[in-house]
Amino acid sequence: MFEHAPDAPMWRRKIEAFVSSATIQHFIVFLIVLNAILLGLETDPEIVQSIGTELAFIDHAILFVFTLEILLLMASRGLKYFLDPWCIFDFLVVGISLVPATESLSVLRSLRVLRVLRLINKVESMKRVVGGLLSSLPGLGSVFGLILIIFYVAGVIATNEFGKAFPDYFGSLSNTFFTLFQVMTLESWSDGVVRPVMEKFPYAWIFFVLFILVATFIVVNLFIAVIVDSLTSNPKENVGTSEPHHPTHLEQEVRAMRQEISELKELLKAVHQR
After folding, report:
1. Which range marks the domain in which residue 190 is found?
2. Backbone φ and ψ of 30, nearest 5°
3. Residue 151: left if φ>0, alpha if ψ -120 to 50, beta else—which one?
4. How many Å apart are CA 16 and CA 3, to the nearest integer?
5. Within a 10 A sphere around the Cβ of 88, how many other Cβ atoms?
6. pTM for the whole structure
7. Claim to verify: residue 29 and residue 71 sit in the same structural domain
8. Which of 10, 13, 16, 263 could form a disulfide with 76 if both were Cys (CB 3.0 to 4.6 A apart)?
9. Which of helix, strand or coil describes residue 125?
10. What is the widest separation between alpha-carbon atoms in the chain?
11. Mean pLDDT across the chain, nearest whole number?
């Protein structure tokens, strides 16, 4: 929960407490799920023809509540609202929905479904998962670089060896990369790619089996390993909370009171000893 400065006005604290209360947050989650269902219903022409006006009214009402929530939080936190990455995300998602969907900006109507992503910000377990994914990006970058090297080496070899006989699959480096990606995902790799190549190059299976072993069963699994390691190493870490914990004003007062009580005990002991 957002912590106000000790000298923050009381009205800011009340607004923050109201918007951040469990009842309001559960209501917002309900509206997000309801909005997702309505956006799905709008993809059916028959439903739109029958109750399209009602769906549009409910959609606008939900958007009004989302906008009101953001405005209240901005009023409570001021410019500090934009210091939270999740608040910026909510602001952009809702802001896109407020832009009129004209013919030149018709894509914005489809982007309304991005409101469903606000559910990540409201469900703490989802935030931890996303936080783990974000914290694993440096490791994923190394794994991605490794698989690029493997793809490039295998692509050059396959283009030189199989390009003339199978120009559709290996005629150029770009075609070879796409074919190798198909092989890596194990999508029709045997009957669609390898067996036709083996009819002309009987020992081609050695190349493709080695590529699958390295690219699919080793390197791709490294992606999963890096993500799992990131999630398990900091299970209680939330996204956007990489900053160290600073004691709140209440915690500081409690510590000061404990110190004063300890000093009083020492003073009473000294009086009894006299």
Report:
1. 137-233
2. -60, -45
3. alpha
4. 9
5. 13
6. 0.63
7. yes
8. 16
9. helix
10. 105
11. 82
